[in-house]
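Collaborator request, handled under Task 6.
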Amino acid sequence: MDRLTFLIVVGLGVVAIMCLFGMFARLYRKVGPHEALLVYGFRGTRVVKGGGRVIVPMIESCKVLSLELMSFDVAPQQDLYTNQGVAVTVEAVAQIKVKSDTVSIETAAEQFLTKSPDEREGLIRLVMEGHLRGIIGQLTVEQIVKEPEMVADRMRSTCADDMSKMGLEVISFTIKEVRDKNEYIANMGRPDVARIKRDADVAAAEAERDTTIKRAEAQRASAIARAQADQERVLAAATAGDCRAGQSSTDRKRTADQGAGS
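Structure tokens returned to the collaborator:
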């Protein structure tokens, strides 16, 4: 075999190897940690997370299912009625994701693999809005407004079974806003506002009274102290006068004695 023939054979071998690698690359499908690859065909259904697998043409196929967090609004268009019969509008935000175990991924794939993200969120939203309606009907307006975390906890626990049947889990549920058309919520706080204002007025009046009393006591104590000081000065002056009078009498007597002696 001459040199030219050898180079041609080597070149064809390299080309063949590159073609094989290229074909293998096209057959190899990989997914990131936020996705699941569902491979189905003659060997059944297999789930690949954060990895890859060669897909044999004609006998196997695959689809990718997102495992990322889904965040969407839960805001029923119709009014929700509390157990008091008050119609309220509730807006919330839900965060849902596919569970990470293989069984849940296969379950979610059965439900959502051929649906668009909007269709998938629409189905989930319908389920959550139904549960939200049932929970609001068991509570008062005061509970909904003042204890939103309690409502969220109830939603998570109530939806857990239905979400699990779809291979999903509720990561969080947050009440954004509660409002009504009849100003029930706006008027709900007025008694508390009036009570707080009344308590503040009473506290201010009591503080002013205590200040007045303390000021009067201070003035009275000051007046007593001044009177005592004046009395002490008068007594001191009187004592000093008596002493001077006694001294003068003694001096006069001594002078008289001296005159008589002379």
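The cover message to the collaborator said: "The chain has three domains: 25-67, 70-188, 194-244. The domain at 70-188 is CATH 3.30.479.30 (Tetrahydropterin Synthase; Chain A). Please let us know whether this matches your experimental observations."
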